[in-house]
Design a protein that fits this description.
The protein has about 650 residues and is α/β, with parallel strands linked by helices. Helix content is about 65%, strand content about 5%. It is built from 30 helices and 10 strands. The longest helix is centred in the first third of the chain and has 29 residues. The protein is globular and about 100 Å long. The relative contact order is 0.07.
Length: about 650
């Protein structure tokens, strides 16, 4: 027992140190866990030489991972799958077929070549999200398409885990696969019956007990029990865990279930990735370094084309297809799960498995550089004639009838819809440009003047008569496309008023240098709204809040607005706000001021403070006259220095007495 505890402490101590280093280097934590596994494994420092115990923990990690995937596979995820399911299916089929054909000569059986295609086909959605989040591009069309494709990959992982035991058989025939599908159908029918008629009532009873311990036991029984049933049927335990999660996904307690399971899942998945890293033998890798380098140079183009081609064929612009292709050019975490199961089943030997791990890690390290180089890659691909023709066809849109003094709105999200509705109310001419074909079709059915196309393409903007437009509003969440659109629009129409919505305050300067007239930073405007809502909690008068908000706004944007005075001559209002305190006070029962007039209190002469306004119910009286009589629950707005306001509050709020 002492040895086990010592080993576990050393394992997590090494893992923590490596993860801290990788966090500083801004590298994915998955790679850090793999490196930690190498260091503690038999081919590293030898902290753990027997992998049996840690592999058993890792198996539970895989179970919980598949369980949480099932939990997350609700109707919304299914709609996303339908949206990009076709592209995802083509992407995976391309990877599997091309990899199998290229590697078939190395293997004795087609099953092993196809399995290698399984490993290549997956992409790390976690890494993709992290990279685009750091770039501030999480809501862009390429990321939406990439995530839709990754959902298809998640679902395919379940099917792959089902197929591996059959593929590992010595005589892999179609009849065996058909029998496996029949068993799968039987298990699925049982899972549906449990999900509809047993689990919901059982879960309702468990939740009513308000016992967290009982709820966790219930989840363990459902997850492990379903996994045991699928194992008994000759199927993957991962499939059973996935079906268990799927059975709970549509219940009212799916989010609560996920929050309870997530800590255990994250811990055990960390153990899983470390156990995978323990397999990495640098001696074997050194002997096969040429093979690892060759495979990396082969895998990256295959993965790029698998993401690039479907998106371009589906009618999206070359720029979007290039970003998706680069985002797909890496090997993801589910490949480790599938590879782990296939390695145990004998579909891949130790040497090739070590090479695969090295290639997967290297692809993750290289991927950020590929995504950063997407603009240059797009420019290079645009020089290829047939790709240029496809790109032009993707950006073809109906030409807007001749129009002048109209507003072009790029993006039909919440901001774009609200702006279009307002312009329509006032009878002002406008046109909308949107990259989501489903959104375009739905809006056109409602009669909106909306067109499909990329706002960063000059041909598209010209078809919408950017040269005669009065204004351009960029309400998209794609920084790269926004910058290009501003530059093109300013060149096409020097008099155009360009309003840009951006996410961060730091992006205002570059956008204005490119030609934007006004730049609205969501980060800053959101902070002002939070400020205003917080001040309202303390019943500060509306005009005072508006003045404070405008003060912050003018300070933040002053350097960016050429029409404002220079910083050497600050406005008088700003100086006053820095020197004068503003305070509010509600008159409670028994306050001295109740029933008296402002003249009777003689507030200004006795304290030096000034009464700016009084709010009574919903009515606001600005600068009350001398005969204004105070009542209970009036809210007073006072101005002065700290000493004057303190004296005024003492005079107003003190209990009434005979000396007054």
């Amino acid at each position: 027992m002492e040895g086990l505890l010592r080993s576990l402490v050393l394992v997590f101590l090494v893992a923590g140190g490596v993860l801290q280093l990788f966090h500083r280097l801004r590298l994915p934590p998955i790679i850090g866990l793999l490196v930690a596994g190498v260091l503690i494994g038999p081919h590293g420092f030898g902290v753990l030489r027997d992998r049996t115990q840690i592999e058993q923990l890792a198996e539970f990690g895989v179970l919980l991972l598949m369980f949480t995937i099932g939990l997350d596979f609700n109707r919304e995820r299914l709609r996303e799958l339908l949206y990009a399911g076709g592209m995802g299916s083509v992407q995976m089929l391309f990877c599997i077929v091309v990899t199998a054909l290229l590697s078939a000569a190395w293997f004795d059986r087609w099953a092993e070549a196809v399995f290698l295609g399984f490993l290549v086909s997956h992409t790390s959605s976690t890494l993709m999200l992290k990279l685009f989040l750091d770039r501030g591009e999480l809501s862009t069309p390429p990321v939406r398409l990439g995530l839709g494709i990754s959902i298809t990959q998640d679902l395919s992982a379940v099917l792959m885990l089902i197929a591996i035991p059959v593929m590992a058989g010595e005589n892999f025939v179609a009849a065996d696969f058909g029998l496996m599908l029949l068993r799968l159908l039987g298990v699925f029918v049982v899972a549906v019956a449990l999900a509809r008629w047993i689990i919901p009532y059982w879960m309702e009873w468990v939740v009513r007990t308000r016992s967290r311990e009982l709820f966790l036991v219930f989840l363990i029984v459902v997850c492990l029990g379903t996994a045991w049933v699928t194992l008994a049927a000759g199927l993957s335990i991962g499939l059973g865990a996935f079906l268990a999660g799927l059975a709970i996904a549509e219940s009212a307690y799916s989010h609560h279930t996920l929050s309870e399971v997530a800590p255990f899942r994250d811990l055990l998945i960390s153990v899983f990735f470390m156990s995978v890293g323990m397999l990495l033998d640098f001696h074997v890798l050194a002997e096969n370094a040429w093979l690892a380098g060759f495979l990396l140079l082969a895998v990256l183009p295959i993965k790029f084309i698998s993401g690039f081609a479907p998106v371009l064929i589906w009618g999206y612009p070359l720029r979007v297809a290039t970003i998706v292709g680069n985002a797909m050019a890496q090997i993801g975490e589910f490949s480790f799960v599938v590879g782990h199961v296939g390695h145990k089943a004998g579909l891949i030997d130790d040497g090739l498995y070590a090479v695969f791990l090295a290639v997967a890690v290297a692809s993750m390290i290289v991927n950020p550089l590929l995504i950063a180089g997407s603009p240059r890659a797009t420019a290079a691909l645009a020089k290829i004639p047939w790709l240029r023709r496809l790109d032009r066809r993707a950006n073809e849109s109906d030409e807007l009838p001749p129009m002048e003094n109209h507003v072009l709105i790029a993006g039909y999200g919440l901001n774009g819809r609200n702006l279009a509705s307002s312009l329509k109310t006032f009878g002002l001419p406008y046109a909308v440009l949107e990259m989501n074909p489903d959104t375009v079709q739905a809006a056109r059915r409602r009669g909106e003047p909306i067109f499909f196309g990329d706002c960063s393409r000059v041909e598209v903007l010209r078809k919408l008569h950017i040269g005669t437009a009065r204004g351009l509003v960029l309400a998209i969440s794609d920084p790269q496309a926004t910058r290009q659109a501003v530059q093109i629009a300013r060149h096409e129409n020097p008099r155009l008023h360009i309003v840009v919505r951006t996410r961060y305050l730091a992006e205002i300067d570059p956008l204005r240098e490119l030609g934007a007239t006004e730049v609205i930073a969501e980060e800053f405007e959101t902070s002002l709204e939070v400020l205003a809502l917080t001040l309202r909690l303390f019943e500060i008068a509306g005009p005072s809040i508006e003045r404070i908000v405008e003060h912050f706004r003018s300070n933040a944007y002053r350097a960016l607005r050429s029409e404002l005075p220079s910083p050497e001559r600050p406005p008088l209002l700003e100086t006053l706000l820095q020197e004068i305190d503003i305070e509010t006070h509600r008159l409670e029962v028994g306050a001295r001021a109740i029933g008296k007039t402002l003249r009777e209190l003689n507030l200004r002469a006795r304290t030096g403070a000034t009464l700016l306004a009084v709010r009574r119910d919903s009515a606001l009286t600005a600068v009350p006259p001398a005969d204004f009589q105070f009542q209970e629950h009036d809210v007073l707005v006072l101005a002065g220095n700290s000493h004057q306001i303190a004296s005024a509050l003492d005079l107003i709020a003190g209990a009434d007495d005979a000396s007054d």
